[in-house]
Specification:
- The chain has 1667 residues and is an alpha+beta fold.
- α3 (87-147) packs antiparallel against α4 and α5 (200-346) crosses α6.
């Protein structure tokens, strides 16, 4: 095509084409850039995604290469130079095709727009024609109404004409707009058509290229198919070769396996031969070892028996002692009672007397104890003095060369103290002194306290000398070798020690140390010196380790520390120390600097508690104080080491170690050793009375294996105790101290103590190699040390460990844990596994194991393995002799092949009853006297499987039946055995696991043999059971099979998992296959031969289980020969009433138990005593006031039993139990076998015999019914799926709600079945997807239309179940009557703004409640608004009549003038309802009216009445006569209509009220009937007016009579609430001309609350048509 320079014809984009953006390009677009191919590649954009397949197509074309050169190509495809079609040309073709398609689509769119515009134009012109026609008709109507002079209609029609002209104008404008658009669309369409014409040649070119492309594509497809066919043939050849290769490899593997099996069998035979000999030797050794074990066991039994007898004897002796102690206590109590009675009889205060006696006894006892303690301390001091003298003598001998002053010279106080002590000591021999010193060891603090107590009556200086002597004695032990050093530093050492004591005190009690003597600021020579005014020596008054009841004295020296003369005055002690500490202090007066005074502190403790305080003084320099500290006795226990490591020792040695237990405190305690693994808080302390002293313990001497242990025991022999003696003394002290003996307490305590000691001894004796010494419990005194022995005696190699605790009776002392570890090694050669356990072995089977011998020797040794003679046939060790190298191992092979003769050959080692084999073996080591022993153990058992019977008889059955017979297979072996029934017949099935399985040792498995044959004959066969070791066990079986006349299409029905509340249904067929040529097969029986020859109908009857979830329909019937019957089987899982009642009982009992526990807990809490600690330390129990609990009604409720019969469906218990079962329901699987009984034949009707039922004809239908938890449950309506709407009035709608809950773990998408569209039930809300645990409420409605009973089923479906709900209801026609007959309900006249009411009754005679609604026409939503009904009434034909509209005048206030109460409601069956109608106008009018309609809920109307009323502003009124105005007041709102009237009334006087009365006399046949009219005068009753009656009178009555009018009565009175009738009569007077109208006007005056004048116009005439 011709193209201009530089212009692209295909890029034309006009306004009409710009919307789609159509752009076409060809090779001509790129001529100026060079060759077409290169220009295309440079300028063309990438292909769109829809043309990407072109690239793959050309890649495949390139892959084909030259192989496709022989294919014929179209000349249009191949270029002139022989090259193939280019990729760019093909892409250009598809791109042009796409652009042409877009242009065609644009052309069609424009055509569519043009057609649409033309249709709119035609429609607009039609509308204009219609409007023009309507305008002409309206103009004609306006002319007609003008002619009729109907101004109102003309006004209305003109308004319509104006509106119509406006519409016509808008339509004409729309026509012009549409016409313009149409022209524009036509222009655009012509432009697109021109464009299509320009591209016609290009379109033809594209079509030719597409044809060429299709041909090329077909050629490529043919080539590809051929290549794929060749590739498939090659693949098949490869598969055949691979299959042949695999077959050859498989054959080779089979041959290799066969060779391996033959080699294994040969080696097994050789091993069996060697194993027999080995087993024989092992049996012999096992028998010997068994005999030894039995002897050892007998010895242990005897030892245990003797121990039990000793324990029994000990317990008996303890019981005797307890009884004696109890008798003594009772005797003592009786004596006290007698003494008390005798003193009371003499008039003496018995309590005071006995208390004094008790105090005297205690004082005497304390004095004795004090004397004994003083004596022992003197002996101890003497022993220490002697020891010191010996030490001094030794030092003198060593230091003879150097000059050293005497000790007494260095310490003069020590010499004086020694002399004092020797003076007060009694003379006693040295041996006795030493003996007492070794027996009694006391703590230093106790000795000091006792010495201070004994010196109460002596001089205070002696106490100081004793203390100084004790300190010098302690310091002399640390005396240096050189006197010079000692002389220079002796005083310094004393000061340092005193400072260290003070520092220690400060660390212990920082609060007290900080509160020592006050520091006072002194000024000397102008310098400030901070120091206390007085120094105290000692700085802190310490009473350490005091005892309650004793008195302690301490002398304190106060020194004036100031630089001036000072004095001190005692102020007192701390408040809390006043009861215990007294100060003896005489004021010394003025003291110069450096002078001192003395005071004495006397401490007499009354409570056993630590005390702290201060003694306060006053001085001239200011106050100061001396701290005071008092501490009680305490225990401070520790050991020298908590971990003992014995190290490495050889078996057979005995090693001992000692642990030193030291008490650094001043309080004695009882200790015991506990070897328990862990201590509980209750057992962490030893509960022993603290009054047991060291005198109750006797000293013993321990025997040790080494001299070191002897020396250690000699030094600590005084602290070791015997357990037996200690336990005896402990029991005696317990018996003496029990003041209130009990029957069971002491006995249980003592028995537990004895049993604990015995068990501890047995544990230590029979435990590991580490044991404790003889001292396992005892008493440790103050500042005493006791050594505890731990002995390690290894018997077997390996690690040994022992953990024990040292427990104390002192509560504040925690147990001390001690760990003991040791390692024992054996002899140089040993067997690594001394006991070889072959586990469980079977007879005639070879078992092997390895024996490893280890050597730690440094030379090679010869080993010889010895097997006992009895076991040589069954057991063998290879090699029998060998050499073990130095520090290496040696392995030997043990072979065991038990024979059946094992019980005879090795009776000594083998127990035939239990099958236990225990053979002792020895290894002889050259050069070693003691052989190495090891044991081979095994349990030998048989491999037999045994059936409980040898023959199984299945009996007689039909070909449709399955007979199951169970046999019990027992494994007599102690090992599990595999078994399997191989190659059973096709009509027999073995279960479980198809006859294969594993039997555990001594297990019996019940095996089901399922016999199901399809041919009628006799069967006899044998089943073979093969064990895992290839042994066969046979079982014989027999059966007789017959063919029944009927057949089931399916004998097994497997229902799917069905939720509770859902149902599953299946249909099966019951077929009678009997014909004349095919008779049923029955057993050969003479009585049934006749029945076999007959072909007759058969009776059948299904008998489902009682109370099951299965229903069958039909359950019985008759089946003719060759007939088929469909049987429906339904499975409905449900919860039985019995299950629900049992669950209700369970819930009741559980709730009852919980309430009882809660009540018991509350009662226990209220009655619990609350301990309150008083100020003196005494605890008083306080009981709450509200501890009394009224348990009467609660107990009665809890104990009231629940009877299952009382639980009725629908009750709360029933509902809760059903919900509990549904929520806890998991799954339930039941199988039912439903028999179908079939008769032999049906007898003729004339025979009365019953048909025979043969058991051989019975068919069995098996049903497998799994039930699962429902996904949806109904939680409302008491859980019932039946919704009963009961009786509902026809036309009414009743709504009920049903709530369902998702109790599954998945979300459920709910759907429902479709209810009858024209039915009475409906589902009002939509179903949705509910998540687990959510609820959804279904809103169901029932609206009956007829008096019938209705029932319908609604299904709520989900993924898991379908919930079916039954909807029921009955329609009842309502019968409601009204006491008012209908018509007009006239309220009469009422004063404005007052009200009057009238009541009528509605009676419901139907059996259901009926809803009603009272409607007023004035309040109806369908009433025309804006007075449209009044316009229609005014323009109607009744303008001159007295007919009023339905809704008349209304109140100005907007409220309805008539009101009804109630507006709506419901009337119960056989009940009535009062309806009250109230008339309350707010302005005078006689045109009040409304229409009242009573409508039932089914839209039926009971009655309809017109309400009328009038209102007046005065109590007197006159009504009657002709209607002067229309019944409605005005079309304008009342506010607009009332404004001119008010203005006029204010200016003029009160106007008269016009009344028109027209009298028409009837003229008939020349006679004239007078005309008569009546007027009513009434008086309104009102509570607001004082005047109760009114009067009326006519004026100018005489003038009326002249014109023929007569008025009766002319005047009168009217009572309130009454009215009177005035009769107006007109008789034509003489001289009356026909057709003349007589008119006159007469005023009528009404006097009431106000005077009103009515202007009555009387018009009379004669008419022939008057009524």
């Amino acid at each position: 095509m011709d193209v201009g320079d530089g212009e692209r014809p295909f890029d034309v984009a006009s306004d009409s084409c710009g919307q789609l953006g159509v752009h076409l390009s060809t090779d001509e677009d790129c001529e100026g850039d060079g060759p077409g191919q290169e220009t295309f590649n440079d300028d063309e954009p990438a292909l769109p995604p829809d043309l990407a397949w072109l690239e793959d197509l050309y890649e495949e074309d390139d892959d084909d290469g030259d192989g496709n050169g022989d294919v014929d190509q179209n000349p249009s495809v191949v270029a002139d130079n022989g090259e193939k079609r280019s990729y760019a040309a093909t892409a250009r073709m598809f791109k042009l095709r796409r652009n042409l398609d877009q242009l065609d689509c644009f052309h069609r769119q424009k055509e569519h727009d043009v057609l649409k515009a033309r249709e709119e134009l035609n429609l607009c012109r039609q509308n204009i024609d219609g409007l023009v026609k309507q305008r002409e008709d309206l103009e004609n109507e306006i002319k007609r109404q003008k002619a009729a002079e109907n101004s109102v209609a003309v006004f209305r029609l003109r308004s319509q004409h104006k509106h119509l002209c406006q519409r016509l104008q808008s339509e004409e404008e729309l026509e012009g707009h549409i016409n313009t658009d149409l022209k524009q669309q036509e222009v655009e369409l012509s432009e697109v058509a021109v464009e299509l014409g320009r591209f016609s040649s290009l379109r033809q070119e594209v079509q030719e290229e597409e044809q060429v492309f299709r041909v090329l594509k077909a050629q490529k497809a043919a080539t590809r198919i051929q290549q794929e066919r060749k590739a498939g043939q090659n693949m098949q050849l490869k598969m055949l070769r691979l299959r042949d290769k695999q077959a050859a490899m498989l054959m080779k593997e089979v041959n290799d396996r066969q060779k391996n099996i033959e080699a294994g069998q040969a080696s097994r035979k050789m091993a069996a031969k060697h194993l027999k000999e080995t087993i024989k030797r092992m049996h012999q050794k096992e028998a010997e070892k068994e005999q030894q074990n039995r002897e050892l066991l007998e010895k242990r039994i005897q030892a245990v028996k003797s121990l039990k007898s000793n324990i029994a004897a000990t317990q008996e002796s303890l019981r005797i002692q307890q009884r004696k102690a109890k008798a003594n206590a009772q005797k003592k109590e009786q004596q006290q009672r007698q003494l008390r009675e005798s003193l009371q009889a003499q008039g003496i205060n018995s309590i005071k007397h006995m208390y004094q006696q008790k105090q005297l006894e205690e004082i005497k006892q304390k004095q004795e104890e004090f004397a004994e303690r003083q004596k022992s301390k003197r002996v101890e001091i003497a022993a220490k003095i002697l020891e010191e003298e010996q030490l001094v003598n030794r030092r003198k001998r060593r230091q003879a060369v150097l000059h050293k002053p005497s000790t007494t010279d260095s310490f003069p106080s020590l010499g004086r103290a020694r002399e004092k002590l020797l003076h007060y000591l009694d003379p006693s021999p040295p041996s006795a002194t030493k003996e007492k010193a070794t027996i009694q060891l006391r703590e230093v603090s106790e000795s000091s306290s006792s010495s201070s107590a004994s010196s109460d009556a002596e001089d205070p200086e002696e106490t100081m000398y004793q203390e100084g002597g004790h300190q010098s004695l302690t310091e002399s032990l640390a005396e240096p070798e050189f006197s010079g050093l000692w002389d220079q530093n002796s005083k310094k050492l004393q000061d340092e020690k005193a400072m260290s004591v003070q520092t220690e005190v400060k660390h212990e009690q920082p609060a007290i140390s900080s509160g020592k003597l006050n520091v006072v600021v002194q000024k000397v020579h102008g310098k400030e010196l901070r120091r206390p005014p007085f120094l105290s020596k000692p700085e802190i008054i310490i009473f350490k380790d005091f005892e309650v009841g004793k008195m302690y004295k301490k002398k304190i020296v106060l020194t004036n520390n100031s630089y001036i003369t000072n004095h001190c005055k005692l102020l007192g002690v701390s408040t809390h120390l006043k009861d215990f500490i007294s100060i003896n202090f005489e004021p010394p007066g003025s003291l110069s600097a450096g002078m001192s005074c003395e005071m004495q502190a006397v401490f007499q403790p009354m409570i056993n508690e630590d005390l702290e305080g201060e003694v306060q003084f006053a001085s001239a320099m200011g106050p100061f104080s001396v701290p005071v500290r008092c501490t009680i006795k305490k225990c401070d226990l520790e050991v020298d080491s908590q971990f003992i490591d014995f190290g490495l020792h050889v078996v057979g040695q005995t090693i001992s170690r000692t642990v030193t237990l030291t008490n650094k405190g001043a309080l004695a305690t009882h200790f015991s050793l506990d070897t328990a693994a862990c201590l509980s808080p209750e057992s962490s302390h030893v509960q022993v009375p603290t009054q047991i002293s060291a005198n109750t313990c006797q000293e013993i001497s321990s025997e040790n294996t080494t001299s070191e242990n002897q020396r250690s025991s000699a030094s600590t022999g005084t602290g070791e105790l015997q357990p037996q003696q200690d336990s005896q003394e402990l029991s005696e002290v317990l018996q003496q101290e029990q003041s209130e003996p009990s029957a069971t307490g002491p006995e249980a305590v003592l028995e537990s103590c004895v049993s604990t000691n015995v068990d501890a001894r047995m544990d230590h004796s029979e435990g590991g190699d580490i044991s404790l010494g003889n001292v396992r419990e005892g008493h440790i005194g103050p500042f005493e040390s006791i050594k505890l022995e731990v002995v390690f005696t290894p018997t077997i190699p390996g690690e040994a460990e022992l953990d024990f605790h040292i427990k104390f009776s002192d509560i504040s002392s925690k147990p001390i844990p001690i760990q003991v570890r040791a390692v024992a090694v054996s002899i140089p050669v040993w067997v690594v596994q001394p006991s070889i356990d072959l586990k469980i072995c079977m007879f005639d089977h070879l078992y092997q194991d390895s024996i490893m011998v280890q050597s730690r020797a440094k030379t090679a040794l010869k080993l010889t393995f010895d097997v006992c003679r009895e076991m040589r046939k069954h057991m063998e060790i290879l090699p029998k002799t060998g050499f073990i190298q130095a520090q290496s191992s040696f392995n030997a092979q043990l072979k065991f092949l038990p024979r059946c003769s094992l019980s005879k050959d090795a009776k000594k080692f083998f127990d035939s009853d239990t099958g236990v084999l225990e053979v002792p073996m020895t290894v002889q080591v050259a050069g070693q006297v003691k052989p190495v022993h090891f044991t081979v153990q095994a349990v030998v058992t048989s491999s037999d499987l045994q059936f409980d019977r040898t023959e199984v008889d299945f009996g007689c059955c039909s070909i449709y039946q399955t007979v199951i017979s169970s046999v019990r297979l027992t494994n007599l072996s102690l090992l599990p055995q595999d078994f399997g029934f191989l190659r059973p017949p096709e009509f027999i099935e073995v279960q479980p696991n198809d006859g294969f399985g594993t039997l555990l040792p001594q297990e019996t498995l019940e095996i089901d043999l399922i016999f199901c044959a399809r041919k009628a004959k006799e069967y006899s066969f044998q089943l073979s059971c093969k064990s895992g070791i290839n042994r066969d066990f046979h079982l014989s079986c027999q059966a007789v099979v017959v063919s029944p006349p009927l057949e089931l299409s399916h004998s097994l029905v497997q229902f799917g998992a069905t939720a509770v509340g859902d149902h599953s249904t299946t249909i099966i067929s019951l077929i009678n296959r009997e014909t004349n040529h095919n008779q049923s097969k029955q057993p050969i029986d003479p009585q049934t031969k006749d029945a076999m020859t007959l072909v007759a109908p058969r009776l059948f009857s299904f008998l489902p289980p009682k109370d099951s979830d299965i229903s069958i329909a039909p359950s019985a019937g008759t089946l003719l020969p060759g007939e088929r019957c469909l049987v429906q089987v339904t499975f409905r899982p449900r919860l039985l009433d019995q299950e629900i009642k049992e669950e209700a009982l369970r819930l009741f009992h559980r709730a009852k138990l919980l309430r009882e526990k809660e009540l018991e807990r509350n009662t226990h809490t209220e009655k619990e005593e609350v301990p309150v600690e008083t100020s003196k330390g005494k605890k008083v129990s306080v009981v709450p006031n509200n501890s009394k609990v009224s348990d009467g009604p609660k107990t009665e409720q809890l104990t009231e039993p629940l009877n299952p019969a009382d639980i009725q469906p629908g009750s709360v218990q029933y509902k809760d139990a059903r919900a509990s079962l549904l929520y806890s329901f998991t799954q339930r699987y039941r199988e039912y076998t439903v028999p179908c009984f079939v008769s032999d034949r049906i007898l003729p009707e004339d025979q009365q015999e019953q048909p025979a039922w043969s058991p051989f004809n019975t068919l069995d239908l098996q049903l497998q019914c799994p039930a699962v938890q429902p996904a949806l449950v109904v939680i409302s309506n008491n859980g019932l799926n039946t919704i009963d709407f009961h009786q509902v009035a026809v036309g009414e709608k009743v709504i009920k709600r049903l709530t369902v809950q998702n109790i599954s773990k998945e979300s459920l998408d709910l759907r429902s079945s479709v209810l009858d569209v024209h039915g009475v039930f409906s589902l009002l809300n939509a179903l949705r997807c509910i998540r687990p645990g959510d609820k959804h409420t279904l809103v169901l409605a029932f609206s009956p239309c007829l008096e019938e009973k209705y029932c319908e089923t609604l299904e709520v479906r989900s993924q898991k179940m379908t919930l079916r709900m039954t909807l029921r209801g009955a329609g009842v026609v309502p019968a409601v009557t009204c006491s008012h007959p209908g018509g007009v309900l006239d309220f009469g006249y009422v004063l404005e703004k007052e009200s009057i009411t009238q009541v009528f009754k509605l009676q419901n005679s139907s059996a259901v409640a009926v809803g009603f609604r009272v409607q007023l026409a004035s309040l109806s939503p369908t009433r025309p608004q804006g007075g449209a009904d009044r316009v229609a009434f005014l323009l109607g034909s009744n303008t001159g009549s007295r007919v009023q509209p339905t809704v008349g005048t209304q109140n100005y206030s907007g409220l309805s003038v008539f009101s009804v109460v109630p507006v709506e409601g419901s009337i119960a069956p056989e009940q009535s309802q009062d309806i009250t109608v109230t008339f309350q106008p707010d302005h005078p009018s006689v045109n009040y009216s409304d229409r009242l309609t009573i409508e039932l809920s089914n839209k039926s109307k009971v009655c309809m009445m017109d309400l009328k009323g009038a209102a007046s502003s005065h109590n007197m009124y006159l009504y009657g006569g002709d209607l002067l105005t229309v019944p409605v007041e005005s079309l304008l709102p009342p506010q607009i209509a009332s404004q001119p009237q008010l203005a006029e009334s204010e200016v003029t006087e009160r106007p008269t009220i016009p009344v028109l009365v027209t009298l028409r006399a009837k003229c008939n046949a020349g006679s004239i009937t007078p005309a008569v009219r009546e007027l009513q005068v009434g008086c309104i009753r009102s509570t607001q007016l004082s005047k109760k009656s009114g009067e009326f009178f006519w004026d100018n009555v005489a003038s009326l009579q002249q014109q023929g009018f007569s008025v009766e009565p002319g005047k009168g009175t009217v009572e309130a609430g009454h009215k009177r009738t005035i009769t107006v009569k007109w008789t034509p007077y003489s001289g009356y001309k026909p057709y003349d109208v007589v008119q006159t006007c007469v005023p009528v005056t009404l006097k009431g609350d106000e005077t009103n004048v009515y202007r009555v116009t009387l018009i009379a005439l004669v008419s022939t048509t008057a009524v």
